[in-house]
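User: I've been trying to design a sequence by hand for this structure and keep getting stuck. Would you show me what you'd pick, starting by listing the structure so we're on the same page?

Assistant: Good idea, let's start from the same input. This is the structure you sent:
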């Protein structure tokens, strides 16, 4: 298989990059399940940008830097925040229908989330990710230069020599048990994060860190892999696996309370329930450890039922289907692994340290998020860097286009062999997820990390 661009992943980063690169050449986009099985599709809150007149670029920059705990790259924060409003306009042109509000200076209804000092989160109620995913997918499906392949799993990057240096020329892709080299001049990892290495996560099942692992094996520089963000509020219910209760609920007045009905966030941070995510998740962890309870509660019952049904239709409906009327009762919640702030280190154009390889979206570590991503900055980062990477490819297109593709080896499975009992894979996965949750979770110690390392070494072996 051969194309100018090979894109791995069909979330906001992969689709945005595909649509722009299709202006330059042919694009193959592979995704390991269905095209909508992405973290983007599950995103509830929205996309942050300076849109209202009472907001400012400086304020969004400042909030991002505070949330990132002193570890953001200021130049990157500046660049992303400044570019935000233009990228939102572009999404609207593509067909994304953000909720409007005639009374706001931007014309949009803007939400607020933890760590934001202004209302600046453009949303489609609590289905923002789905709205964006579907608009981008519709465009990509109807673009004849884009071939979108579902149930195609990239398993390793295709590395070969070019002018005396190692370069990425695509990936080995498996479909129905057969591995085929997919050769390309430009390869982009847009394969999301690692939530599924944890027992509890808000992520979809596809978030198994494949892209990060492939980049690591190819020798790409990685950074900040310890900065796994835990979302404070995932629905706690025996029949629910990964249902998020958006931070926008706290933005609209939701209050975290213990089993004793007493609010506790003021004890931990003067910003109270709208403190940044790391602070809130740690506070809940502490409350749970001290009280021995299984969950805390998020109370939004101060709001009218009609408001809640309209603003949070998915959350309202899902909770009601589990017997929780959020206009009358508090929602049981626990923290869960949510977002990889680190990843494949990239420059300001989304390029990794491996020639020919870009990383975009959650797979990348651009320097925007620092130690803790500000809520709703991730969709923004994905569109800004997809745009920059495409602009870079456009600027250097004649040079990229002229690169000769060397002879490519067919797939060799090395020491891999078929396991006699498939169930062993599930057992190992279960051990990994429990070990990560118990020993590499929200609050960590050297002792626990060393224990985890020993257990992982056995599984790796
Ligand atoms: C949320 O809606 O709380 C998630 C938003 C995000 O992860 O940025």
């Amino acid at each position: 298989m051969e194309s100018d661009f090979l894109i791995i992943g069909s979330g906001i980063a992969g689709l945005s990059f595909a649509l722009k690169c299709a202006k330059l050449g042919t694009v193959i986009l592979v995704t390991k399940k269905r095209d909508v099985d992405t973290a983007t599709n599950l995103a509830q809150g929205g996309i942050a940008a300076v849109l209202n007149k009472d907001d400012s670029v400086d304020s969004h920059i400042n909030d991002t830097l505070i949330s990132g705990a002193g570890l953001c790259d200021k130049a990157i924060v500046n660049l992303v925040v400044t570019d935000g409003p233009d990228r939102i306009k572009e999404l609207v042109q593509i067909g994304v229908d953000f909720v409007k509000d005639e009374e706001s200076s931007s014309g949009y209804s803007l939400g607020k989330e933890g760590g934001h000092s202004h209302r600046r989160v453009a949303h489609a109620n609590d289905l923002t990710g789905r709205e964006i995913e579907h608009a981008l997918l519709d465009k990509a499906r109807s673009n004849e230069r884009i071939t979108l392949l579902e149930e195609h799993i990239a398993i390793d990057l295709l590395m070969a020599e070019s002018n005396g240096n190692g370069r990425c020329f695509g990936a080995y892709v498996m479909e129905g048990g057969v591995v085929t080299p997919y050769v390309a001049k430009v390869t982009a990892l847009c394969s999301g994060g690692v939530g599924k290495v944890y027992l509890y996560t808000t992520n979809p099942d596809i978030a198994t860190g494949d892209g990060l692992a492939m980049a690591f094996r190819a020798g790409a520089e990685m950074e900040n892999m310890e900065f796994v963000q835990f979302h404070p509020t995932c629905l706690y219910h025996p029949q629910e696996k990964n249902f998020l209760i958006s931070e926008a609920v706290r933005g609209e007045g939701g209050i975290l309370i213990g089993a004793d009905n007493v609010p506790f966030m003021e004890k931990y941070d003067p910003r109270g329930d709208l403190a940044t995510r790391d602070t809130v998740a740690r506070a809940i962890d502490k409350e749970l450890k001290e009280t021995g309870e299984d969950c805390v509660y998020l109370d939004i019952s101060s709001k009218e039922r009609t408001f809640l049904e309209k603003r949070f239709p998915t959350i309202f409906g899902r909770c009601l289907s589990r017997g929780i009327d959020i206009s009358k009762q508090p929602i049981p919640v626990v923290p869960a692994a949510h977002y990889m702030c680190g990843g494949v280190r990239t420059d300001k154009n989304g390029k990794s340290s491996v020639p020919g390889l870009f990383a975009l979206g959650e797979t990348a570590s651009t320097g925007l998020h620092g130690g803790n991503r500000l809520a709703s900055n991730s969709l923004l980062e994905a569109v800004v860097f997809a745009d920059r990477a495409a602009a870079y490819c456009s600027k250097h297109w004649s040079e990229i286009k002229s690169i000769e593709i060397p002879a490519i080896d067919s797939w060799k499975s090395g020491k891999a062999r078929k396991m006699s009992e498939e169930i062993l894979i599930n057992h190992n996965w279960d051990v990994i997820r429990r070990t990560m949750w118990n020993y590499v979770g929200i609050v960590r110690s050297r002792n626990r990390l060393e224990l985890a390392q020993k257990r992982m070494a056995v599984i790796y072996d």
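That's my pick for every position. To get oriented when you compare it with your attempt: The first strand starts at residue 2 and ends at 8. The chain has three domains: 2-226+341-410, 230-337, 422-460.
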